[in-house]
């Protein structure tokens, strides 16, 4: 069996794919450190990683986390307003229930007292 010859284009795609996987792993490392009963945002994680404009990529990484890191506390990551935007990606237990089990009050899919519960990884790491 022969494989197609690697071109500069396929090398570039491979490089980007490897960098993306590395980015995802760094996101997961930060998410694993979010304290019980606290929340952070996609943007705060992106800023901590030195990629302030990559909050959407953090969200994509979080969407994939259930497959590769099933015990990651992904429910502790919300949007910049404290809204549970990732709630549709929790098939076994609703995101709000997981947060409420940690003492976080959620009303209308939004974290109550978000400013007090916000954990900024850049300040703590």
Features:
125 residues, mainly alpha, Arc Repressor Mutant, subunit A, two-stranded parallel ribbon, two-stranded antiparallel sheet, 6 helices, 4 strands, 48% helix
Fold blueprint:
Blueprint: H1 8-31, E1 40-41, H2 42-48, H3 55-68, E2 77-78, H4 95-101, E3 106-107, E4 110-111, H5 114-117, H6 121-124
Parallel strand pairs: 1-2
Antiparallel strand pairs: 3-4
Helix pairs in contact: 1-3, 2-3
Describe the structure.
This protein is mainly alpha-helical. It is 48% helix and 6% strand. The chain contains 6 helices and 4 strands. The protein has a two-stranded parallel ribbon with strand order 1-2. The radius of gyration is 17 Å and the shape is globular. The model has no long low-confidence stretch (mean pLDDT 88).
- Judging by the overall fold, what is the CATH architecture? Orthogonal Bundle
Order of secondary-structure elements: HEHHEHEEHH
The rounded distance between the terminal residues' Cα atoms is 48 Å
Separate helix tally: 6
Level-1 CATH class name: Mainly Alpha
Portion in strands: 5-15%
Q: Residue share in helices?
A: 40-55%
Structural class: mainly alpha
Rg over CA atoms: 17 Å
The dominant shape is globular
Kindly report the spatial arrangement of strands forming the biggest sheet: 1-2
The CATH topology corresponds to Arc Repressor Mutant, subunit A
Mean pLDDT: 88
CATH superfamily: Winged helix-like DNA-binding domain superfamily/Winged helix DNA-binding domain
Q: Name the poorly predicted regions.
A: none
Any idea how many domains? 1
- E-strand count: 4
Largest sheet: 2 strands, parallel
């Amino acid at each position: 069996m022969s494989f197609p010859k690697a071109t500069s284009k396929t090398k570039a795609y491979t490089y980007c794919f490897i960098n993306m996987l590395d980015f995802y792993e760094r996101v997961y490392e930060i998410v694993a450190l979010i304290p019980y009963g606290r929340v952070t945002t996609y943007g705060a994680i992106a800023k901590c990683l030195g990629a302030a404009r990559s909050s959407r990529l953090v969200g994509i990484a979080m969407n994939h986390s259930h497959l590769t890191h099933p015990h990651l506390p992904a429910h502790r990551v919300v949007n910049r307003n404290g809204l549970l935007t990732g709630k549709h990606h929790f098939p076994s237990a609703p995101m709000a229930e997981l947060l409420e089990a940690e003492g976080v009050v959620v009303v209308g899919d939004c974290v109550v007292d978000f400013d007090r519960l916000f954990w900024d990884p850049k300040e703590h790491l």
